[in-house]
Amino acid sequence: MKVMISKKMGKLFAIAGLSCLAVSCKVNNEETKTLAKLEVASNKHYFQTEDGKPFFWLGDTGWLTFGKLSREEVNQYFENRKEKGYNVIQVMVLHSLTVKNVYDDMALVNEDVSKPLTTPGNDFKNPEEYDYWDHVDYVLDVAQKNGLYVAMVPVWGTNVAKGDKVSKEQAEKYAKFLADRYKGRTNVIWLNGGDTHGDEFVDIWNAIGSTLKTNNPDQLVTFHPFGRTDSSENYHNASWLDFNMFQSGHRTYAQDTTKGAFKEDNYKYVSRDWDLKPTKPTLDGEPSYEGIPHGLHDTLQPKWKDHDLRRYAYWSVFAGGAGFTYGNNAVMQMYHKGEKKGAYGNKEIWSDALNAPGAGQMQYLKDLVLKNNYFDRVPDESIVANQGEKYDYLAATRGTDYALIYTYNGRTMSLNMGKIKSDKVDASWFNPKNGEEKSLGEFKNEGVLEFNPPGEQADGNDWVLVLKSK
After folding, report:
1. pLDDT, position 102
2. Which residue of 34, 134, 359, 364 could cross-link 435, Cys pair, CB 3.0 to 4.6 Å?
């Protein structure tokens, strides 16, 4: 007698999920080409591909992609981000222990991370053969097709912070499942943790990190920490941590009363990490999101704008950051029409927010940095003779034959010349809003020179002075 088993019942009979690793669902074998492996560059501050080419991390927080986007929406999202120059998408594998995707596929059996709910086969047209993890495979294939790396958080920190939901043993089994399933993926990066305090549940985070790194040494691993904290504070010397990531957070100078906090000065995290030994890359993995209220929770507060994201990006990268991650309130939560209530006061549809002003402006920073000699670039505040605080801060970086100085509010720059080679330099103003560059002419590369940016001094009238050796 042939017994018909429903999809859900079939999955429950497939609890042997750790050994039932479905073959990855290919979008198109001809279009889906393996991406180059990522590695830490020889100078240890930046990334490169395995063939030695510079890799500037330009990330986007698409946290709920796996759970809330259909296959068609995944294609729409990734194609948009590819067009805008992004190369990394940060996502949660498990937002919660009860998470399911838009096809009603649960990720786990009985909210147990050690029991991923898998089914044999991966035929999209046959619901009996398609599960949550097959959808993850599909997303990774679409990402690869679009030249995107996917930085995955195995389990969001709040699930571990509950104390009795995830044990060390469960975490190790789950991490081994992930490591085995995605062993052949060159476009996978791991973000251990997930908006969580690094000094809590250390045994679990070390178990996940070491399991992932031991089984897949070619995949980069870091720790995504709680707001206004940095992975380096707890895991810099961990053998599994390849690079540092900090979350500069969503509060204003006035809102952050934490003693010793860097507040909005996200470049200070980079400066601190730059000097640590052993040397490791670092970057801002979660700044204030475009379209989110100052401080997050009071929806009556002003919202962070595109110029705020530019400020965080240029400040941190010019301080020596290996890249930057942009975020948008609607996109990070993939808010859909008809949902009862968006988090943090959001009412904008995710697909409409894809083209928010700041989302399209991040590529200009990436292009600016990469068109100069990338690996010899260092932070150098000594270039600035009239350094200011808070929004008056001038961020400066240079190579042997170029220097870049960023002002957030268009105030006059007094610069100590002679920091790059040659007797004369060509100067130009670079516009972070549109990537256009306007020549200022030739100047002697000596003494102290003043440069006055276009427009009146005002927050958001940001410019980069570009100096190049003659």
Report:
1. 97
2. 364
Domain with CATH 2.60.40.1180 in the chain: 380-469
Question: Of residues 430 and 19, which shows the higher confidence score?
Answer: 430
C-alpha to C-alpha distance for 19 and 15, rounded to whole angstroms: 9
pLDDT tens digits, one per residue of 70-88? 999 999 999 999 999 999 9
Cα angle value 54/89/156 (rounded, 5°):
125
Contact 94, 107 (CB under 8 A): yes
- Kindly tell me the number of DSSP H helices and DSSP E strands found in the chain: 13, 22
pLDDT at 27 over 60: no
Whether the CB-CB separation of 323 and 56 falls below 8 Å is answered with yes
Joined tokens for residue 34: 């393996």
Superfamily of domain covering 380-469 = Golgi alpha-mannosidase II (2.60.40.1180)
Strands 448-451 and 413-416: antiparallel
List of residues 6+ apart from 446 with CB closer than 8 A: 417, 418, 423
Q: What is the DSSP letter of 256?
A: -
Indicate whether 16 pLDDT > 70.
Answer: no
Q: Which amino acid is at 151?
A: A
Select from 130, 105, 64, 145 the least CA-distant residue to 329.
Answer: 64
Pick the CATH number of 9-370 from 3.90.870.10, 3.30.465.10, 3.20.20.80, 1.20.1440.230: 3.20.20.80
CATH 3.20.20.80 segments of the chain? 9-370
Please indicate, yes or no, whether the overall pTM of this predicted structure exceeds 0.85.
yes
Q: How far apart, in whole angstroms, are the C-alpha atoms of residue 454 and residue 272?
A: 32
- Phi then psi for residue 40, to 5 deg, are -75, 135
End-to-end CA distance of the chain: 84
Length of the chain: 470
What is the β-pairing status of strands 149-153 and 88-92? parallel
Q: What CA–CA distance (Å, rounded) separates 36 from 299? A: 42
Cβ neighbour number for residue 69 with a 10 Å cutoff: 24
The residue assigned the tokens 């594998």 is: 93
